[in-house]
Write a structure and sequence with these properties.
By secondary structure, the chain is mainly alpha-helical. It contains 11 helices and no strands.
C-alpha cells in the first residue's frame, strides 16, 4: 500500500503542478501558490476531523512547522527559478534533490531495502531528472541557469518530505495543519506583490481549485504512504510527479516529448515495477 499511495501522491502532485503552472500564467505564481496552500490547509483540517486521532502533540507541531517552512521555501525558490533562470535546469535539479535527500536520510536512519527495490531506486533517480528535462528554446544565452534556485527548491521539498515522515504515524494528518498555515503566511507577501486582475477569469479560478484540491490530496496521500512504508521508497516514488505533469501537457496542451523525457518515462516504468516487486 505504501507503493500505491506513493504513486497516487505523485499523480496528485503532478496534476496540481500542471494546473498551477497554467493558472500561474494568468494570475501570477504568488497568487497560485497562496491559494494552493490555503485550500490544502482546509483539506487537512477536514482530514484531521474525519480521522479523529488524539490531537496535535508538541512533536507533531514542531515537525509540521518544519515541513511548512520547507514547503514555502521549495515553492518560492522553484517559481523564482522559473523567472530568473531556465526551467530545463531548475526542474530536474529540484526533483532529483527532493528524491535523493529523503532517500539517503531514510537509509541512514536504518531503513532496509530489498535488492529489487534498491535497483528500482537506481532507475528512479535518473528517471526523475530526465522526465523533468526540456530544452527552453526561448531562453537567452545571457540568462543564468538557475541552479541555485533548483537546489534550494529541491532542498525545501526534501525538508517537507522528511519532516512529515519524522512526525510519525501516530500524528496522523495533524502535522499538515500547522505546516500549511505557516506556508500560507510565508507565501502571502509574494502573492500581494502580484498585479490585481481587471476581471475575474473563471477558467483560471477553476485551475486554482484543481491545483489546490490535487495539492492538498497529494499531501494527505504522502503522509498515508509514509505510515505504511519506508521514506526512502515513498519519497522517490512521489518525486516522479514531473512525469505526470508532462503527460498532462501532452494530452491537453499538445506539447511534444523530447528523447530524454521519453527515455525517462521508460526508466520510471522500470523503476516502479522493480520497487513494486521488491
Amino acid at each position: 500500500m505504501a507503493v500505491v499511495f506513493g504513486l497516487l501522491a505523485a499523480l496528485a502532485y503532478g496534476a496540481s503542478d500542471f494546473a498551477a503552472g497554467v493558472g500561474g500564467r494568468r494570475l501570477g505564481a504568488g497568487v497560485v501558490a497562496l491559494f494552493v496552500q490555503l485550500l490544502a490547509l482546509v483539506m487537512a483540517v477536514i482530514a484531521v476531523r474525519v480521522e479523529a486521532r488524539p490531537g496535535l502533540t508538541a512533536s507533531a507541531l514542531g515537525w509540521g512547522l518544519v515541513a511548512g517552512a520547507g514547503c514555502a521555501a521549495g515553492t518560492l525558490a522553484m517559481y523564482r527559478g522559473f523567472v530568473v533562470g531556465r526551467i530545463s535546469v531548475v526542474a530536474p535539479l529540484s526533483a532529483v534533490v527532493a528524491a535523493v535527500v529523503p532517500a539517503l536520510t531514510g537509509i541512514a536512519l536504518g531503513e532496509h531495502l530489498t535488492s529489487l527495490a534498491g535497483f528500482g531506486l537506481v532507475f528512479a533517480l535518473p528517471a526523475i531528472g530526465l522526465v523533468s528535462w526540456h530544452r527552453d528554446a526561448s531562453a537567452k544565452t545571457s540568462t543564468r541557469p538557475g541552479a541555485l534556485e533548483g537546489l534550494v527548491s529541491g532542498a525545501g521539498f526534501a525538508v517537507l518530505f522528511i519532516a512529515l515522515d519524522r512526525a510519525g504515524p501516530a500524528a496522523g494528518f495533524w502535522p499538515l495543519v500547522p505546516g500549511l498555515a505557516l506556508a500560507s503566511v510565508l507565501v502571502l507577501p509574494f502573492a500581494l506583490k502580484e498585479p490585481r486582475p481587471t476581471r475575474v477569469d473563471t477558467s483560471a479560478v477553476a485551475l486554482l481549485l484543481m491545483a489546490g484540491v490535487f495539492g492538498g490530496g497529494a499531501d494527505l496521500l504522502f503522509l498515508a504512504a509514509t505510515e505504511r512504508g519506508p521514506l526512502s521508497i515513498v519519497a522517490v516514488l512521489t518525486a516522479l510527479y514531473p512525469a505526470v505533469t508532462i503527460l498532462l501537457a501532452r494530452l491537453f496542451l499538445g506539447e511534444r516529448w523530447n528523447a530524454a523525457q521519453a527515455f525517462g518515462l521508460a526508466a520510471a516504468a522500470v523503476a516502479i515495477t522493480l520497487i513494486t516487486l521488491g
